[in-house]
Amino acid sequence: MDKALVTDHLRSEGDINTTRARQDWASRLKHSGTQTLLQRDCDVFLHQAMSTPCLDALQAAQGIYLEDTAGKRYMDFHGNNVHQLGYGHPHVIKRVQDQIAQLPFSPRRFTNQIAVECAEKLTEICGGELNRVLFAPGGTSAIGMALKLARHVTGNYKVVSLWDSFHGASLDSISVGGEACFRQGMGPLMAGVERIPPAVSYRGALPSPDGGDVHYADYLEYVIEKEGGIGAFIAETVRNTDVQVPSKAYWQRVREICDKHSVLLIIDDIPNGMGRSGEWFTHQAYDIEPDILCIGKGLGGGLVPIAAMITKDKYNTATQISMGHYTHEKSPIGCAAALATIEVIEQEKLLEKTRNDSEFIHTTLLAMKEKYPVIGDVRGIGLLWGIELVKDRMTKQRAIDEAEAVLYQCLNHGLSFKVSQGNVIQLSPPLIINRQQLIHALAIFEQAIADVCDQYHYCNKENEHDSATL
Ligand SMILES: Cc1ncc(COP(=O)(O)O)c(C=O)c1O
């Protein structure tokens, strides 16, 4: 009997573990140690669509590579977005080891040198008015703190967010998130959330009068005015999973609207911060400044969980409220990892490198789009690229089976990435990747695309759509 079970609303954040292609993949994992570990994992952990039962079992990670229990290596173009520096960067390891030896924990009410240095450095790279920091053990908690701060500052509890967005898995985060697969059966959720359509260039919900996306921002103003009592607008500057890259005009208009209506702009840069866009933080590529910035994931150098909310001095007014009363608030180990990560990005000039690599990837992917009709759209920023596979460039019907075929062929050949919305291949390499490795990875990807075109009988057609970038 076919045990594959898929419902389309699950195909949002990432690829899922209930498909036929996934079962075929699992049946090909023959290494007995791997099979045993996967079975024990399956027996002990709660099952979830995007993790357990797992894809494979790991025994090591170094640089851009993951290594499974059979000794097979994958270039990691997914990394849950902690992998800006790849894995096991010697500088981060050394800093963290030294910190563990000296001061492994700092109970609340005490401060410590490394936490202060890390917060100071973060405010320096944020620039502008972002000069107040609060650490948290994970991104979701940073979002929770931001939502509370916005309520406190504005006196308004209502929030506008985007459909299809993800801001973490806790109840407050899924309340503002836009993906049904996280909210289903979880209500009642936090009251007062209004969702608006995201600025999507390729298949947006709102017809564009002029090919632009500023009308999506105008819709924010419409909702703020109609609904009243809105305290905050929360969004990723660039949607990480299916790589939606709004225009500069969109973000500047959003900033203008928030200012006009005294609505706080909360930017969630948890997956894309720390250099992925070619800037420290993605909003810097748009010349705007949020009122509250949430970061996490790669902040800990792929080693330690740590996140932060960074805001402005003028919002430092909740002195008698605990916004983030987290046990690991001024974690010396987390802060050592974060400071070391910033140092590596500076020393290895990873922001400049990311901007250069970005051009290379963009050109290479556009050339593939010319050749392969299954590629409907190519979009990205820095070292974050989305390749949308479609059955037909006119209808834009999502090529879901084709995307899965590309994923599993690439995994077979040692390249790991995620598939979002069922048909968007997301390529998110470590920023430390060298050009040769990048070329190799893109060659594996191209071969899989070529094979899928053969297998599904796509024939070359003229290019109908332009790609979108910032
Ligand atoms: C955009 C975004 N916000 C928030 C989070 C939550 O971060 P964490 O898993 O560290 O709680 C994630 C995690 O995937 C994310 O992608």
From TrEMBL:
Belongs to the class-III pyridoxal-phosphate-dependent aminotransferase family. Its cofactor is pyridoxal 5'-phosphate. It comes from the Bacteria. Gene3D superfamilies: Aspartate Aminotransferase, domain 1 (3.90.1150.10), Type I PLP-dependent aspartate aminotransferase-like (Major domain) (3.40.640.10). The keyword Transferase applies. GO terms for molecular function: 4-aminobutyrate:2-oxoglutarate transaminase activity; pyridoxal phosphate binding. Keywords: Aminotransferase, Pyridoxal phosphate, Transferase. Its EC number is 2.6.1.19. The lineage of its organism: Bacteria, Pseudomonadati, Pseudomonadota, Gammaproteobacteria, Vibrionales. InterPro entries: Aminotrans_3, Aminotrans_3_PPA_site, PyrdxlP-dep_Trfase, PyrdxlP-dep_Trfase_major, PyrdxlP-dep_Trfase_small. This is 4-aminobutyrate aminotransferase.
